[in-house]
Amino acid sequence: MINVLFFAQLKELLNCASVQVEQNTPCSVSQIKQALIAKHPAWQVHLDQDNILCAVNQTMVDLEHEIKDGDEVAFFPPVTGG
């Protein structure tokens, strides 16, 4: 099982803080994202934005990063500060 978290504005837009994805074999972050879109088509407009960032086990990664059972994947918009 892979725990997927959504943060900040993305969490509000999806109306969801987290979901679990059943995944028995290693896959990429991109494949998890596509599985989420297949299950929730309305999420595509938000998850497919070029500026959405992702982290696996609290480390920033790109969409081709391999994830495995038990990993935590987080999606979030870019963060700005003052």
Q: Could you please describe the fold and organization of this structure?
A:
This protein has 82 residues and is of the alpha+beta class. It has a single domain (2-76), classed as Ubiquitin-like (UB roll) (Roll). Helix content is 27%, strand content 30%. It contains three helices and seven strands; from the N terminus they run E-H-E-E-H-H-E-E-E-E. It has helices at 8-14, 29-39, 44-47; strands at residues 2-6, 18-21, 27-28, 53-56, 59-61, 66-67, 72-76. The strands form two sheets. It has a five-stranded mixed sheet. Strands 3-6 form a two-stranded antiparallel sheet. Strand 4 (53-56) and strand 5 (59-61) form a beta hairpin. The longest helix has 11 residues, at 29-39. The relative contact order is 0.30.
CATH architecture field = Roll
Query: Considering DSSP H and I runs of 4 or more, what fraction of the residues is helical?
Result: 25-40%
The first-level CATH class is given as Alpha Beta
Structural class: alpha+beta
Main β-sheet, in a few words? 5 strands, mixed
Give the helix tally. Answer: 3
Mean pLDDT: 93
| Cα distance spanning the termini | 37 Å
Would you tell me which CATH topology applies? Ubiquitin-like (UB roll)
Helix-strand string: EHEEHHEEEE
Strand content: 25-35%
Count of beta strands:
7
Evaluate the radius of gyration.
12 Å
3D shape? globular
Low-confidence stretches: none
Q: Which superfamily, in CATH terms, is the homologous superfamily? A: Beta-grasp domain
Provide the number of structural domains. Answer: 1
- Major sheet: order of its strands? 2-1-7-4-5
